[in-house]
Amino acid sequence: MDVVRKIMESVERADIKRLNLTSYFDPEERVVLEAFVKELVEGLRLFEEEMKAEEEEEEEAAKENSSEVHKEGSDTLMI
């Protein structure tokens, strides 16, 4: 037990941070990380909106093309 006590005292004197599963960030690092995450989330949201708008435009264009083909096809006479 004496060895463990000496190790604990030396660690406390050295002011070493304990290793655990939670990450440690300086306050400045945390601010930068939070700003980065916020911008990343916003960028992904905008990208998804753009992709959804493009898909809707493609669907509308496909519907218009198919309706034009049906209109043109009804004018032709089949023999």
From TrEMBL:
Residues 52-79 are annotated as: Disordered. It comes from Trifolium medium. Residues 62-79 have a biased composition (Basic and acidic residues). Residues 52-61 have a biased composition (Acidic residues). This is Uncharacterized protein.
